[in-house]
Amino acid sequence: MKNMVIKNGILISMVLMLLLASASAASAHDVAVSRTISPTTVTAGESFDVSLEITVTGPITSEQNSSYATVKEYYTAVDDMENWIISDVSAQTPFDGAFKNGNNNDTGLFEFSTGGGALYYMTLASGGSGTFYINYTMTSSASAGAGVHSISGYYTDADFSSTGTAGYTVDVTGDSEVTLLAPVDPPTYIDDTMSLQDVINASESGDTIMMAAGTYVLPADLYINKSDLTFMANGGEVIITPDASLSDIDIHLGLELGSVGGSTDVGCDASGTTFNGITFDRINKLGEQYTYIDNIDVSDERLEDCTFINTSVNLAHNAVMKNCVLDSSSESVYIYGDNVLMEGNIGSCRQIKGGTYSLSSTTTTPCSDFTMKNNDLSFKYLNYRTGSCLIEDNNITTSSYISLYDNVSNIIRDNTFSSSYTYMKLEGQVYENDLIYTGTSTTAYVQFYENGTYYLNNIGHPTVKLELATYSTPEPVTYTYAGVGQTSYLGNYYSNYTGADTDHNGISDENVTDSTNGGVDEYPLMGAWSADANSIGTSTTVLYEDTVELGSDMTCTFVPYDNTGTEYDIAPLSAMAALMATGLDMKTSDCWYSSMDSFFVESIEGYDTPSDWSKYWEFRVNGAATSYGIGSSTFDNVSDGDVVSLVYVDAASGSDEYSVVITVDVTEKDDFLYYGAVDLVTDDTYTLTLQDDEYTVDSLSALGALFETGLEFKMNDDDYVNSSSFYLESIEDIKDPTETCYWAFYVNGAYTSYGIGHVTDDVVTDGDTVSFILTDWDSYDEYDEVHIHVNQVDTPVLVQRDIANQNFYEELLTQYGLTSTKVTVTLTAREDIDSLALEEVIPEGWTLTSSNDDEGVFKANLTDDTRYEWVWTDKMTEGDSRTIEYILTLPSDEDSGEYPVDGTASVFVGDDDINDIPVVGDDMVYVSATDWNPWNDIDSDGSKYITTDELQAAISCWLNDLPAPTTGDDITTNRLQLLVHYWVQNKECPEGADA
């Protein structure tokens, strides 16, 4: 066998040698080099950083000193790149061996080499591959021309031979260009002791003039005759103003010194003039009106963050006026060119006027593409005619008129125009504007011109002139009216129009027609349009607007307020069920149910139907009045997404005064771990027992709702001291399936900021929906869900039952004859009541022996031996209580199982007979075949207390995997911990306690 091993080893060695020989015949490695430049755009004379990443894959086989590797970078293209300067070179081994700065020979070549053999040993050490970096900084020449400069480079090594020829190269990939910007001259700094005209005369086109804070007084007109000059405030307020003795001082753009601003002047290039952060005070005119003067160029003027006090401004081609303040009640802004932008300006002036500019002293042409947006301005006139414009998102107040017409290409949208006088004339695509009239004139009007499109405008003027045009949205719009979703073409809202809306969709049944001018709005709105809410407004006061969850598996019953002895089963997917789910305070009668198969909603939230029916509650589904009544067993059916409305209508006017709007969300119970409603009795409590402590839980809480579902759940109080709440570990033994999940806790669909059972915040009320959703906190995926609808039960009397011993074991029943337990029922009046009765229902075959009737009359039912009654005939005032006690006895041979103890109370309060008041508290007795714990039996050493000897016996069973004596049950770790807990606390270990 050893010989065979040796032979195999020799064979393997030979194969390896052949493989190595084969590898030496041709290179087995590959190389890639990538270049990263940051930044790729700099000003000539500035620096940029370069990083080269060299990735070697596969071993380099040559071991000779000639097995160098080299990366070469070339900066030789144009504009003296060979004179650029390299610095801060850092390279990772083995490329730190040699660096040759080609600039010494003005070649523009920069070479990085490993030196002899270094790369071979490096790749050998790294298992046949490696990634290496070379970093350097390159400084461009200040004299280099602006533009794009290319960089090239390649890699080679003595062994690299992808073509079979040693010394083959591979190009560097990645960034290969640097953009150089022309150097910018340094700004000129001035102060208010210097002459602005002298500074301009001495400047060059493109200069930036930084103005120190101060007041720059003009002794005469100021001439800006250079292009691209920028005047910028250099901290503090900069004011340009005439000498106090002068008036009508102008700032001329594009005119030579001494010109007077007339049409015969000779112009020059002042394009690109910029003022930033400057205040102009009492300047007669900034800019030129006659833009056709020979050689004049005043385009691209930019006014930003400036203030204009009693100063007029002329804006020519491509001018921008942005974020400025106007304080010039007697001066104006004039538009004399194309592509003018006014944006973000505030304040007031006399007018904004434009629409045409001069081509000569005798001819004009319309402006194009004037944009006015996001301004908050007030003035006497807005007069822009003939030229095309985009007017949007402005808040404009005028004391006279707005004229934006004579061009059907205009777009006027999303503005608030407020006028106190005369008219607004608009043309083009005009939509979603608020046109507000604040004056008292009965002749003020809005005029929409022919061929335009006008819709979703809210018009407040007393008169509207509609020329022959389109007065509706281009396509049907999905919107909301009175809480109900609708889809239709929509027109405009006219504040002085009162039409009928019989189908309740927010669109009048009658057209708005201008017989004089020919225009017709076929879809006039009943209320103002809200673009934000995508809705038509209504004067109706909304009492309730929310979504309720319904499911076909839910049980829904209804008791009329005026016939409490009758209960109706309500279809779970019905408008009646939706109304009941809101929890609103209402009075609903069955007075006409027998004849009309529906109920009469007499009152909601205190709004009653008077006897003369001058006001009444109308029932609608999806905005339309129904032909049947609410709760109809035949017709009242709703589906997911339906909107149920109850509307309080004034019969005389037909107007809707109040409304209840309910959106139906149908969610089937089968989709969830639990979906249903629970009754939570006010002032009832539950006991939460955790390993170390017991907590009292109020019934009107999310935790109380979870208790009432009967679902099995586990939680801990590990962080109760800090959070005052519990951590929900599992429901129905369902817990984290991915180790990144938790039971998220919601009330009415909103994620809570507090934990379940929080001592002060966990409070629910009638109509609330409590949800627990198993959620992945990384992906937000949702798994099992529990949804609990809360019905708050406020009864005239609180009835609470306490069962002393709820757990029985067969051995206690048979061996010790322990078959009885004491039951206590306490009845506490929440208000004054005239009489009180209680009925208890026990399991069949069991017996009840009354031991304390508390002055009541006790009676066993003679026809049903499971029912027992107590009656009190004396009155009780609020806070009074009655307590009865009885002994409940089980048959000694009772089978294992769960046995309910039920009960109800009834009272008379005044003339009202109120029945079926639930008994809360303990309601179950458990019988088990065995009791795992022999150490808390009444005949054990410490009876219900765990003694030290008993604990040691339990530990021995646990250590040796032995069954418990007598019961034969396993002693698990959790059970042992339970015994330790009661031993340490020196508390009684109750029957049935398990872990």
UniProtKB/TrEMBL annotation:
Span of domain Transcobalamin-like C-terminal: 595-637, 718-772
Species assigned in the record: Methanolobus profundi
TM stretches of this protein: none
InterPro entries hit by this protein: EF_Hand_1_Ca_BS, Pectin_lyase_fold/virulence, Transcobalamin-like_C
Protein name listed in UniProt: Transcobalamin-like C-terminal domain-containing protein
Coiled coil: none
